[in-house]
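JOB MANIFEST
job_type = single_chain_structure
chain_count = 1
residues = 242
[input]
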Amino acid sequence: MSALSALAPQRLLALFRADAISVAREPVLFVNLFIGLILPILLAAFGDQIDAYAGQSLGITGFSAYAVPFALITPAILIGWVTGMLLLEDRDDGPLLALEVTAIGKGGFLLYRTFVLMLIASAATLFTLTLLLPDQPGLYFPLVLLISLESVFISFALVALAGNKVEGMALSKILNMLALVPLLALLATPWRYAAGIIPSFWIGEILLRADGHLSGLTFLIALVVHIASLVFLFRLVTRRLG
């Protein structure tokens, strides 16, 4: 039976139910699924007041616009972290070994986790986009796709680089800094493109440089960088999972 069988509706729901129970039992994981939405909600509600304060106190106009990339990508990063920690737990505690002899195998299970992760990250991103960029629907599809891939990137990076859950917790502090990388798009040309190998840079390039008009070339480069990084990490993940 192929790995795609993991996405059969009945099996998909059974796996998702088991994951939901696991997350609900771990307060840290459960909270991180939702805590990332606090920032975009606050930014949408108090953006004008934040801009006024920043203008008066710091002399910075349009401060909230610079916070939008960070607010958009943070929920996806935290959701990816939750999935990565679940995979580390499954690897450390042995369930992944048991899956090797099941119909879906470890490959099917990883496909299931990636599929569900992208769905949840896409929903969270779409929600934040409607809050923060209600007048730029043309950016919704490319940003939802790219940011959901960012979520998978975080999940894969945790599994590929962390030896156990403790290392995963420590590594998460470094990976969380990727939410700040989009701000590098504010650097002058061509220096900012030195950060172009980091997938999250392109979120800033789209939001802080596109002015609501995304070029096909920028989106294509962003997509290629994201996919290339995921292919590289996927190879590392499959080795670490055995």
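[summary]
The chain has one domain: 3-241.
The mean pLDDT is 87.
exit_status = 0
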